[in-house]
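To close the section, here is one more complete example, presented without commentary so you can practise reading it yourself. The ligand is iron/sulfur cluster.
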Amino acid sequence: MMQLPLIRLAQGQLNLLEICPPQFQRLYLEELGSPISPEEQEKQSWGSQFHLLMQQRELGLPIDSLLKEDEEVQRSLNGLVAAVPEIGGLTGTILRDAEHCRTLNFQGYLLTVVYDLLIVEGKKAQILDWKTYLQPQSQKKLAQNWQTRLYLYVLAETSEYLPEQISMTYWFVRLPRTPASVNFIYNDLLHQQTRQDLSSILTKLDSWLAEYLDEGIAFPHRLNCQEVCPYYSSFFATWGKSSIDLYTSIENIEEVSI
Ligand code: SF4
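Output:
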């Protein structure tokens, strides 16, 4: 196979590899992104602004004047700070770091995570993540998402903490009333399962990449979603026009198939 530089993979790429390999090929190998809708753009910029303000707050920088510019962000941020005691600071904390980045070399790929807030105390390490979309996801769906699995796995592999000492909490901050949370406590069984699943998905990626680069063979469609995917038969002809619709369809397919 043609020699490639080390490939960096985050949770989004792992999710896509699992849900729709052809879309992974299109977005990450061919860099064929599509324009996003104004509504989607608004959600993304709201989320970026919220994350930035939380990081600035953690660094002790003044944010009051920025908060005054957006009442909704202000309400959500104050609601989160009131609901999460850890944000205010805990006694005995060894490390707390916002936008904390870690990388792990796994089978020749660089697995990358960015924790919104990492808090390390005597016998436990907590990952906190701010979710800014409007509907909280179910615990089951979040448990299967590569963000949960990868974030916990990488921390266990790159720290001295045992899986049982590590947890991850999602906080859904953009809700009309108070923020809601979903919490995951890690363990050794889940850790072994994640290692196995990562190995399996990256072994497949090795072979798809080799076929794609050496022989021009496209990444394969999944078998169990072809019947319900309206784009399967006209995949390549359809991409340019409606990949936003396709994304929605793919998400629905994933919900059905799990
Ligand atoms: S059938 Fe549709 S959702 Fe499934 S892999 Fe192919 S394009 Fe993706």
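Once you have examined the tokens, check your reading against these statements. The first strand starts at residue 7 and ends at 9. Residues 236-245, 252-258 have pLDDT under 50 and may be disordered.
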